[in-house]
Amino acid sequence: MQNDNFSINSKEIYENILPDGSFLGQLGPREWKRFEDTVKYVPKNTKSLLDVGCFCGEWLHFVLQKRPSIENHLGIDVAQNKIDKAKEKYPELNLKAIYAEQLDFAPNSFDIVTCLEVLEHIPDWLKVFHSLFHFARHRVLIGVPYREKTQYTCCVNCGKSTPLWGHLRSYTEDSFPQLKGWSLSFTKLYDKDPSRIFAYRIYSRFFNPRWLLAKYERNG
Predict the structure, then answer these.
(1) Tens digits of per-residue pLDDT, 21-30?
(2) Cross-strand partners of 152
(3) How far is the C-alpha of 62 from the C-alpha of 64, rounded, in Å?
(4) What span, in angstroms and rounded, lies between the C-alpha atoms of 67 and 72?
């Protein structure tokens, strides 16, 4: 259940309280496994890609390694310190600190637009959601938490109620609108450690998926 009294500035928290670029430090095997599961839906002939909410550049670096056909790319994030960290780690990346709604690109400028584990942190998420389709020529990939029970705790910095992990909401298939001219499909992802294959199979049998990948494909 979402807390309507949530009033902390999410961007301020993102920039200042999490300066190391991560909630839990470096990305672990579960995160990289989600990248592996997601890159399957980036066609091997992709020429251009925009990543909205690129964080510290891990996904963008990963997809460029897996899809060398990509000649033009851009990663954007609202926090300059995240972009600075990404440039330090991956100097080959083309990055910019800017809101998606402020980008000055012609319509359909990129073959694919990705937005992974971003929208759940944004109060007015539909505004960002619709901006993704302005730039996408063929496909939009959106990753979000699936049927997560949103929980709140007391912020140790300000004493106000704040959502765990910064997740303002969870999503189901019904959360995503059908858009004219686009076909929508879904893939459910488990939060799993690929180094533990046996436990991983048991987990997928008895537990629900934790992440949802919404895939929009332009018709025609």
Answers:
(1) 444 445 677 7
(2) 163
(3) 6
(4) 11
